[in-house]
């Protein structure tokens, strides 16, 4: 049995027909056995005594359907307009036939809205409100041909003096939303709808515009265990996270406006773009060979990589590449992964190329913290840069870099590039050591002493922290002065750590001693910070998960709505179940207020689409654009209609 209740204007002359008794046919006899829908919906049929062919029960029987008198004036407004929808708490699902059944149901000649009755009956027990519809006679409505092709058998209801598509009638059928304990769940703000006052022109005294709460079961709030992170009111990705990801995505796709005459292809890489304009030297170089870095795309996996090219380098020992395979096996969050190295003549010289992971929009610690910057403008005022790094940031870097060192040393390797320009800031407080393995090839020596390089790592680490603490690349040239500055700016613990690292004298340094200086509390602080950040990102992902559902839904609507032709039928998207989908689209997106201005109400759209996605039994009244017909359908039915239409389209697309 259908849940769709089409109510349309009679065609011209239908009233005439109603008054002229026709010859009893088989169809007429069937009609006489069918209860008149006006009785069911409005409680009475004004044509009961003047030729309505349907069955009319006695007045006592239909008493529960009578509607109280109206006190508000009838408006004349454009369509479509915001319609209150009916919460389904009292209306269990009955008889909706699932996928594809809607067309048949809509065209069914006999209609008994089973799921509807309890709601109406429930209303009879509720005290009537002043906004209830009128049963008083009014003008006979204009009769327009309906847009919907219902077929010959379709039962037309005569619009009585209280047209069904008037808002006060709708209120009677769909009482205003009253938040229950579930609906007042987290995330629902009573003042969520800025249009509420505009959308209730008929209820100025008692606003009953159904605000569209984001129900917890349809739109999930952040996970409960996320109480350790600030809650965000925005159901979408936070602005700063969106901007960060957007910038990264742009950086990946960036191309060079200048033609640098680079090879089109290099090994398996193509689309080479220099990371920095070539030829500029801004700070002491770490490597004795000039190098230039390119972003390139791998033809193997389509991912971006960094190609660091050493110009004019001649490789003397093939064995130098042995370290590359070891570095390649180390995947650590504190290291920029080295993938491979090769020599090439594609640039017109003999070049050595290292391939690293590409971290879009990253910058070196030198660029981020030491390089002088233009003062930033905020609210029209220039903001001075922080004079020095916060102690917590210093410890965070120290913990991450110490762990990167630990993993390299445990593989019997040395980092050798713990320098301000070779440590990349790849995210919020996330540092990674870059260019690991480069020295192992550039300065290859079969008799090299890895322990000596590892001891140098401690020295370089101390120097890097000192330079960051003093905000200067020259800090190591005057140690007493620099250490004095550090002790004034930072805690004794940090001063002791730097002193331990940069002092050459004493026994060989080791990781245990290093972590003793750092202290387990600092490591746990870092763990907490990372966990909080992971939680916050997970919360953000959660909101994107919801949005992805809605995008899929809107994509389906886009495939179906306004399709010019399908299955050799130019009216495919306007007929059958698709007509319901069209009306639903109008209901969700094309509402207008009393002045005919568009209602751009995001919470309404989100609530409708979420209900649709969940396919709930709640009913919604869809009104045709000429306001002459309306359908009462459940979200479940609309979902079925969309699924059926989309499945038809998908099937045809693979044929
Ligand atoms: N793997 C990478 N992923 C993303 N960006 C990188 C990567 N490596 C380097 N960069 C970018 O290139 C910039 C320059 O780094 P690079 O190591 O080339 O410094 P440099 O100034 O050329 O130093 P040097 O001359 O000593 O090699 C960095 O600040 C960073 O923005």
UniProtKB/TrEMBL annotation:
Pfam families to which the protein is assigned, alphabetical: Pan3_CK, zf-CCCH_PAN3
Start and end residues, zinc fingers (C3H1-type): 30-59
Residues reported to bind ATP: 308, 357-364, 421-422
Residue ranges of the region described as Disordered: 1-34, 61-101, 119-149
Biased composition (Low complexity): 62-73, 124-146
Subcellular location per the Swiss-Prot or TrEMBL entry: Cytoplasm
Polar residues composition-biased segments: 85-96
One Gene Ontology cellular component: PAN complex
Domain notes: The N-terminal zinc finger binds to poly(A) RNA. The pseudokinase domain, the coiled-coil (CC), and C-terminal knob domain (CK) form a structural unit (PKC) that forms an extensive high-affinity interaction surface for PAN2.
Record-given protein name: PAN2-PAN3 deadenylation complex subunit PAN3
Species assigned in the record: Calocera cornea HHB12733
